[in-house]
Amino acid sequence: MAEPDQTDATGPVGNATDVDIPLEAVNALIERGESNRLEFKSSLRYDLNTQRVNKDLTRTIVKVVASFLNTHGGTLLIGISDGGTPLGLDPDIQTLSKKSLDGFELTLRNAVGTYLGPSISPEVSVAFPSISGTVVAQITCSRHVEPVFLQEGDQCTFYVRDGNQTRPLHVQDAHSYIRTHWTEEPAPSAASMKELVAEAIRDELGAVMPDTLRAVVRAAVAESALSPAKRMGMSTGETPPPWLHVGTRTVLNLFLRPLAQSPDWKNIYLVTPWISAIDSLGSMTSDQFIKRIKADRTTVYLVTRPPETDWHEQAIARLGETGRVNVALVPQLHMKLYTASTAHGSFAMIGSANFTQRSLTNHEIAVLINSYADGRRVVSDLQYEAAQLYRLPGRKLLYKASFADT
Questions:
Q1: Gyration radius from the chain CA atoms
Q2: How confident is the model over 156-204, as pLDDT tens digits?
Q3: Distance between alpha carbon 163 and the CA centroid of its chain, in Å?
Q4: pTM, entire model
């Protein structure tokens, strides 16, 4: 049965170091040579000429990533000379406090988050293939759903791929490029955005979010109301912290995207009045979600209303029958809250979107918080709130995973 049109049914994480890349595939990339979708860089931060750390090299790496995200996607190989000779990553690794591939990836992702924003890092896949015993880094990304800007202080620069080079566009040219390559939805009016913010904070955020964070959320939502073109030249006194991201389009993907990119899921809380099968538009389908919780032996806690429709009941049953999901039914549940703990960090999302297919097309609002810097406390508070909702007096346990401590 199709999900009905109900008015109320309405991010660093991510890692791909364990990807097994066939040697033939890497060699084929190198033999192809640099192009609009392929770039070689000798190092991430160690200057082989001056034999010292050069932070400009890291910024150049991020510029290439930005250009791929803004054009057709692509692959960046680090530890490869311009001529295609494998050089390896050891010179870079020796400059790090954590002298390992994990330290290398952390440095790279921190740079992406610093220059492009924390929501971009999960969009980038990082792997470390070995070429005849020489380990290199392979960074892969697809074209992004929105324009990506490299920000240094108050200056935002828009990069594209032009043949085998990375090129910045003048503001006027960037505006034209964005209009041509992305169809912008009309930005919400000031009045409608104010109402959205008020509703989200009152209904979704107020119970668990301190006053200081609500002010930050308001500033972040106000910025998200601007079109990408307008954001290019904006300079505001209030900048959202790097651990917080606000979404107003396909906002369920704000949670699904980093979840799909994160390795080794530990536990997940899904607090949602309605839940349905997800089979398109999202970063992860229901089938993929179920496959991952089985493979990672994840403990999942689902809090939802007692089902009154076939599609709701079927979605609950599919999860419960995995043996990995605890399901608590709570009548009159309204809050939508999602948290995830993985081997490489935790994050949480709270907002207006149910865990449903329709939430990928409805007009929604959500806030994603990553568990680093001041975001750690916020994620911890949200995880605690989710656990308390699962344990509400009067709940009905429909499914209980036998191995889970509930």
A1: 22
A2: 899 999 988 999 998 888 888 888 887 644 444 444 444 544 454 444 4
A3: 28
A4: 0.50
